[in-house]
Amino acid sequence: VPACSGHRHRHVYHSLASGLHVRTAPTTAATTIVRLGPAGSKVTVNCFAVGSSVFGDSVWYHIVKPLSGFVAGFYLDTGRDPAPGIGHC
């Protein structure tokens, strides 16, 4: 994801669900790269994108740690979507 690979501010959040899917694109139809561990797993976000809706929330975050991919904003403890201070991919 070239637009997200630049040197932007990075923010750490926690997953709200066990086994959160990390996907290749901001949609539930995209291939799952990996599933994260238990709820509370840390992820480092560098930008957000608008994608398919997950329970009414269409914001997805591009994460760079523990690996690179997209996770649905509905499942992160951002407080609101898009999270303050996170730029668009």
Task: Please provide a written account of the structure.
By secondary structure, the protein is an all-beta fold. The protein is built from no helices and 6 strands. The strands form 2 sheets. A 4-stranded antiparallel sheet has the order 1-4-5-6, with no helix packed on it. A two-stranded antiparallel sheet has the order 2-3. The protein is globular.
| Shape assignment | globular
Per DSSP E runs of 2 or more residues, the count of β-strands stands at: 6
Spatially, the strands of the biggest sheet line up as 1-4-5-6
Order of helices and strands: EEEEEE
Ends apart, CA distance between termini: 8 Å
Strand content: 35-45%
Largest sheet: 4 strands, antiparallel
Task: State the low-pLDDT regions, or none.
Answer: 1-7
Short description:
The chain is mainly β. Helix content is 0%, strand content 42%. The protein has a four-stranded antiparallel sheet with strand order 1-4-5-6, with no helix packed on it. It has a two-stranded antiparallel sheet with strand order 2-3.
Observed structural traits:
mainly beta, single chain, 0% helix, two-stranded antiparallel sheet
Write the layout of secondary structure elements.
Blueprint (H helix, E strand, L loop, with lengths): L10 E4 L6 E3 L8 E4 L6 E13 L2 E9 L3 E4 L17
Antiparallel strand pairs: 1-4, 2-3, 4-5, 5-6
